[in-house]
Amino acid sequence: MVDLEKRRFLRHSSSIPVRIHAGNEPQRLQCLLNIGEGGLAFESEAAWPLGTKLRILWPIPLDFSLDIQELQGKVVWCRPHRETQEGTLYEVGVEFIRPDSEAVDMTALIEELYQQLAEVQFEIFTASSDH
After folding, report:
1. For the segment 101-126, what is each residue's pLDDT rounded down to a tens digit?
2. Which Pfam families does this entry report, sorted A to Z (predicted)?
3. Hey, where are the domains in the chain?
C-alpha cells in the first residue's frame, strides 16, 4: 500500500482506456487505474522497467484513431496487481515529466463521455427490444 503521507497529489480512480507508447515499442491499449496531477497508474499485462519514458495518450471514446490529450511520464514503480487466466497483470506507476492539473479534468470528461455513450446504447437497446 502507498504511504499517503508520501503522496503529494490527490488521486482520481478511473477505468478508461489509455494508449501507452514507449520508444520504438508499439502502442499498447491499457486500462487506467487512477490519475492525479503528478502522475497515474495503469494496469498492464507486462512488467515495465523503472525509468522507462512513456507517452500516455487519451483516445476519443470508441474511436481509437484520434487522441484528445497526450502527456509524457516515466515509470517509477511496477508491481504484480492480480492474477488472471492469461497470467499476471501489473500495476504500473507513472510520474508525469511536468505535473498537469488538467489531466484529471480531461479524464473526468472522457469518463462522462463513456457514461453518456453507455446510456445512449442502453436506450437504443431497450427501444429496439420493445418492438
Report:
1. 677 677 777 777 777 777 776 666 66
2. PilZ
3. 11-129
